[in-house]
Amino acid sequence: MEIRLDYMKVRPESLQTLLKLEGYVQKSGLEHKLWELIKIRASQINGCAFCIDMHTKDAVAAGETEQRLYLLNAWREAPFYTESERAALALTEAVTRISDAGVPKELYEQVRKHFDEKQFVDLIMAINGINCWNRMAISTGMIPGEYQPAQK
Predict the structure, then answer these.
(1) Contact 62, 31 (CB under 8 A)
(2) pTM score above 0.90
(3) Alpha helix ranges (H) inside 1-116
(4) For a surface tag, which of 57, 79, 131, 140 has the fewest beta carbons within 10 Å of its beta carbon?
């Protein structure tokens, strides 16, 4: 496999724009493990191997269990996720596949049982952020496998 285009070299400001969104989500107070689950689930839906590789490694480094990562694509059938995580994962799927059915009122209400208005906006920003990263990685042919999380 070979990378098609190194967008970071061709247009470094594109990377800076994405990193600004990433910084917003980091500062939002969204729980780190939940954010990683969101990134992985959206990446699974989008088929972004680069991002799945990166964010599963980041999730493990943040203390996420392998069991929860292995079952993430079947989270509805697995008992290892909290109700708030389930609501966030359902929202992740709806926003990632927004052209299918939008975000139904019932889902919005389910999410709002666990997250206030500001947190809801932060969830949407996190979901949109990873969807953008996925589209950049897939479109430019980024290759999975090399990424290693920063050592703490």
Answers:
(1) no
(2) yes
(3) 7-10, 12-27, 32-46, 49-61, 66-70, 83-96, 98-101, 105-112
(4) 79
